Structures are given as C-alpha cells and as structure tokens.
Amino acid sequence: MRLSHSKLSCILTCPMTYYLRYKVGINLKVKKPALAIGSAVHWGIEHNTDDLTEYWKSEEGLRAFKLQDNYTREQVLCESMVYGYLKHKDELFDEILSYQGEKLTLLEEYHELELYSELESFTYKSPHNFMGIIDLLLLTNKGFIVIDYKTSSQTPDWDKYLDQIYRYIYLLKMNFPDVPIIKIGIVNLRKASIRQRKNENDFEFINRLKMEYELNDEDYITYHEYLPEDLNERLLSDYMKNLSKEADMAELIDESNNFYINYNEAVGVYGKSDYYDIFYHTPDAFLLYNISDNIYNKDFDTLESIRDCRPLDMLVIESKNVLNKYDTFKANIIAYYSVSNSTDKNEIFEHLKKSYICDDELLNIYWDTLEYEMKSMTDEELKKLIF
User: Fold this and answer.
1) CA distance linking residue 205 with residue 67, whole number of Å
2) Domain map of the chain by residue range?
C-alpha cells in the first residue's frame, strides 16, 4: 500500500474521512483558516517572498482564500508572518549553519523534497511504499540539516513532533545511507492575535502587523533543534516497527472496504471534522464541497477535473453503488455497447439505473463529456476504446 503520514493518520483516525478524501475525492470548497494560513506561509518561505499575490491567484490559493479587492485578516497575517521570517532569515541561518563551533558550507538546498522508501510488512508479502515531504533539506560540507516549518497560535510542545522527526531520519537513511544527518530543527511561526483598530485603514494595519513581527521576533519566530545524539536509536527502531504495524492495519481497512465513521473525531480538540456536515446529514451539505471528477464544461468548451458536489455525492457514506464518477460511467457504457451494440441514450440510462443510484442531470453531463472526448479521438483510438 502507498502511504504518507497524513494518509496513514487519516485512515487510522477515521476510515470514512480517508474514504471521502482519498478514495472519492470530496473536499471542502474553502480550506479551514489554520490549514490555509500554513499553506500560504509555506509557499512564501519556499519562494522567498512576502508578496503572496501569485499564490492568492493560484488554484490552491483561490480554494483557500477567495480573490477580492481587500485582503482578509488571514491574508494580511500570512504576508506579515513571511515578512517577519524573511527579515530574520539571516540570523536564523547563522544559527542553523553553525555546528560544533564551526561555520558550515551550504552546498545545496531542497524545498518540499519528496522521499520514498519501502516499509516492511508483518502481514503482507509485499512491503508498503511510504512517502514523506521534508520542508527544507540543506546539504552542507558535514552532512544533512533537516528543517521543518510550523505555524501555530502558541509555542508548541516540541516533543509531540518526535514521530515526524523519526520519519525524516528513516527516509533519509534509506535514500542517502552514506550522508550523515547532523541537525534536525523546527522553525515555528506564531500567529499574532492583533486586530485592526477602528480608525486604522488597511495599509496602516498591514504595516503595524509587519512591524510587530520585525521588532518582536523572539515572541513570534522560534527555532528548536534536535541533535542526532539527543534522539534515541532504540525508539527510532521501535517507532518504525510500530509504523509497519499501523500500515498493515491501514491496508486491512482499505482492502476490506471497512470505512466506518469515528464519531469521536467528528468534533475533536481542533474543531469539527471537514466532513462533519456529511456525517451528520446537515441539510444542503453538498453546497460546501467539491469532488474530483472529469466532466465537460459546455460554457467554456473544456474538460475539468473538479466539479461542485451534488446531493447524490452525499450518499457515498451509505452506499457503494452511487454513480458519481465519469470514469465509472464510461466503463459501463463501453461494457453495455460491447454486449448490446446499442448507442440509444435513454436505453443506456435505464440500464444504468438498474445497478446504480443516479442523478439524471449528472448522467446527461457525463454523456456530453463522452461525446466531447470521442470527437477528439482518432479512429484507432476509438477502436481501442470500444473494442
């Protein structure tokens, strides 16, 4: 099974959340503020700029923050946090690139580095594929330095990140066994709770918030370091064995389709689940979500990979025979044609309704999508598709 820490944590915490997010592809249209701020700040740090205009206009940015004339407080906060970080970046890197009284030479730096490794299984014949993303990996003349960025409302408990640290160590050792890891650190950017004053315009508020981060960096920008010798090798070994067992359980849940709702997590410490409104059948909950699906947009004459959710999509938590994916629709059309040789739309739709819960409007959209797709195919491609 291919897993990341977020996928593994998700399926073990609430299998139905995993099913909706990763199997069906349903997500909130608007990200929660905490996640949205974290993503924006990471983008600014990676691109070395506190001008996040390009990010606000990107697909991810538009999902998290609706483009508008005036910045929201969250957008102002994001740019101010990155501004404060960049103002003190040189001081931070002086500390990060110091080791045993020596100034290290920075050879390469890698942002958002994806690493893959096999994770042994105690249950299955094949190992699991495990993936992790390191925010910043620095290659120096002495070895690797791993840096992770966090955004929080207060100074975090550093020990709660030890499992993530052990993952980084494992992935780096598997991929680069000959390069020592000399430092692992976390840079935490704390969110300021400052509000805009009544007689303060947007420009004044932005500048005041930026100045707060520039002048009071010790309150808002924290660097914590884990030295390799401070990390327990036995705990690393125990952690990885336990991670293998967790991965085995994840695969068992996945292959058995045992996607149940963990109602204890629907309203957790950090607020409601992203899927609370689906779990509790909130009226018109479908308006809050979109879904990954390939559909033809007549207005723009293009194929799109995401559509707004419909009431039909909310039924997937109760039934596995909901027809809400174009790929499933197309496969059924081809199978039916190969047996009946019929291209009669009404006949085909009636056939589908015998096996699936359907939405008439969505079926027609899928039909238009299939016609659009077939128009752009060559004769050879059509033959392969049908026969």
Assistant:
1) 19
2) 69-247, 288-386
